[in-house]
Specification:
This protein is of the alpha/beta class and about 280 residues long. The protein is about 30% helix and about 20% strand. It has a 7-stranded mixed beta sheet, sandwiched between helices.
């Protein structure tokens, strides 16, 4: 098994366990800190007043509210990457209305099953959930008005491929709005190599400039950050995965984590080739 496959399987196993445990304690609806083994809550009560929020579908795994900046309109088709139990899909559905369509993709069968059950309970015929990987989206090219995602792309091993897939499925002029975790600089090697920190949304965080460069390299433009806030990272989140020396080295590096909500757009027309 390659390193990429091993990372993907660790992430899949972690989120399958969260889906199975939902409603049974630690990682139930509005769980605190599931993304970092109980030590780090990156979302708090941000969804409390969000229209369309479904408590049973909110597992507390996000780091932002991407729909707040996505400017969704009635009748649009929205794709949520790493949809989990469906919370952001249901929020998006509230925005696009009965004439719109929302598609959620997740690589964890347990999450897809939970999302489908939630949609059936709510009676939402225009919300669909598909099993698949973000690097290989089960979505037709040029069919999506807006792609959203919430604290998921940092878990994807091949981020360049993921952004290329996003560009592929967007309609010309379609847009991207994702909330994600980035770093203020390169993470120390010990942090990057800690498997538990990867599935806990930390070790996969790229430096912000590198993250934005990958978005642009995929052919998306008008790339900008709409919202940013620091993510305090206590020693208790690091201690299960790093020894004292590695934690000290991380602190000395001065690198910090932040939650950002990023906007970008697929150009409405291909660039003119100059000869």
């Amino acid at each position: 098994m390659s390193d990429v496959d091993a990372i993907r399987e660790r992430v899949r196993a972690k989120y399958a366990a969260i889906a199975r445990a939902a409603g049974q304690g630690c990682c139930g609806p509005r769980a605190e800190g599931c993304c970092a083994d109980g030590s780090l809550d990156m979302i708090g009560e941000a969804y409390r007043e969000v229209a369309g929020h479904v408590a049973e579908a909110d597992l507390g795994l996000g780091c932002g509210v991407p729909t707040r900046h996505a400017a969704l309109r009635p009748g649009e088709t929205v794709l949520d990457l790493g949809c989990g139990a469906g919370n952001d899909c249901f929020v998006a559905r509230h925005e696009v209305g009965e004439t719109g369509r929302v598609l959620g993709v997740d690589m964890t069968p347990e999450m897809i099953a939970k999302a489908r059950a939630n949609a059936e309970k709510l009676g939402f015929a225009n919300v669909e959930f598909r099993l698949g990987e973000i690097e290989h989206l089960p979505v037709e090219s040029g069919t999506i008005d807006c792609v959203i995602s919430n604290c998921v792309l940092n878990l994807v091993p091949d981020k360049a491929r993921a952004f290329a897939e996003i560009a592929r499925v967007l309609k010309p002029g379609g847009r991207l709005c994702v909330s994600d975790i980035v770093a203020t600089g390169p993470l120390p090697e010990a942090v990057r190599d800690a498997a538990g920190l990867y599935v806990g949304c930390i070790a996969g965080a790229l430096p912000q400039d590198a993250y934005l460069a990958l978005v642009a390299a995929a052919g998306l433009d008008e790339v900008r950050i709409a919202e940013a806030r620091p993510i305090p990272l206590p020693d208790s989140a690091l201690a299960p995965h790093l020894d004292a020396a590695a934690i000290a080295a991380f602190r000395e590096s001065g690198v910090e984590l932040r939650s950002v909500t990023l906007l970008a757009r697929r150009p409405a027309r291909p660039p003119i080739a100059h000869r």
